Amino acid sequence: xxxKIVNTKTILSGLFLASSLFxxxxxxxEHHHEEHxxxxxxxATLTFVLxxxxxxxxxxxxxxxxxxxxxxxKDDTQRQLVQKMIADFTAATWFSFxxxxxxxxxxxxxxxxxxxxxxxxxxxxxxxxxxxxxxxNPARLQSLTLDLATIAAGVEKVTVQWILNGEQGAAxxxxxxxxxxxx
Length: 183
Ligand SMILES: [Zn+2]
What we know:
The protein is built from 2 helices and 9 strands. The protein is an alpha+beta fold and 183 residues long.
């Protein structure tokens, strides 16, 4: 009898351990997704780093905010939407800085899960738009203007972070705002 009780306890604690581990693994996965924060529908992230005269701007958004879907294009209409998305971000006209800062885009690198070869069926897809810039008068950099209404209508909020020659800052851009002030 004694050994039977022990066995039951062992089995119970084993089951408890297994379910705890499962729960921990599940919540870790959920947290992983949330903590990264890089893929939340309606939101996007932008980082801008200036060192001397050279700058890098990185923008990331779920493609749902741009074309309304995150699966591979299924027909010509969707393929055209994806092509337009890439062209819009390659054009690099959706952001601008104070004119006196004289910043010009010197390089663009646009990539998207929607144009990449993927072997697994994706749950989500992102667009990453990276730019390099040269600012002739970086001391005059005071604000970043965003014009996302036409090319990224689904973006309601952009979390903007910057480092301007060592000075860090952050601000949220929300739909309807013109831009963010560096301060
Ligand atoms: Zn998604």
